[in-house]
Write a structure and sequence with these properties.
The chain is an alpha/beta fold. It is 49% helix and 23% strand. The protein has 7 helices and 7 strands.
Length: 127
């Protein structure tokens, strides 16, 4: 299963990619939310590991664009927010953003793989 990693920091993206690859996923590193939206829209279903902010946008705009896709499987793409800010400080409520998961940096390998496996199980139930 594909796991999209959106991060402008190439080292961080490649580190997460190695963890996901070791967990049996096919990581795809992308530089922007727009690249991820294009991938989700034109390729097979995937989960997305994304930062809270990327270039000129934030994760809430990114998620709202995904949720507006016509195909149910694509519109329900699980988005996992990856940030160095503790979740309780950054978000009043993760549910308001409709994120699948939240990983605080630095992320541990087991944490990344566990969240990815939960997302893969979720995606499998949608198809």
């Amino acid at each position: 299963m594909n796991a999209l990693i959106v991060d402008q920091d190439r080292d961080a993206a490649e580190s997460t990619a190695r963890i996901l690859s070791g967990g049996g996923f096919r990581p795809v590193c992308l530089n922007s939310y727009d690249d991820a939206l294009d991938y989700i829209l034109n390729k097979e279903p995937a989960m997305v590991f994304a930062p809270a902010f990327c270039a000129s946008s934030d994760i809430s705009v990114f998620i709202s664009k995904i949720r507006s896709f016509d195909e149910p499987v694509k519109s329900k793409t699980p988005v996992i927010c990856v940030s160095s800010v503790p979740m309780e400080i950054f978000f009043d409520s993760a549910a308001e953003l409709d994120i699948f998961g939240y990983i605080e940096k630095p992320a541990s390998a087991p944490e990344v793989v566990i969240v990815a496996r939960k997302a893969a199980y979720y995606i499998g139930g949608l198809q």
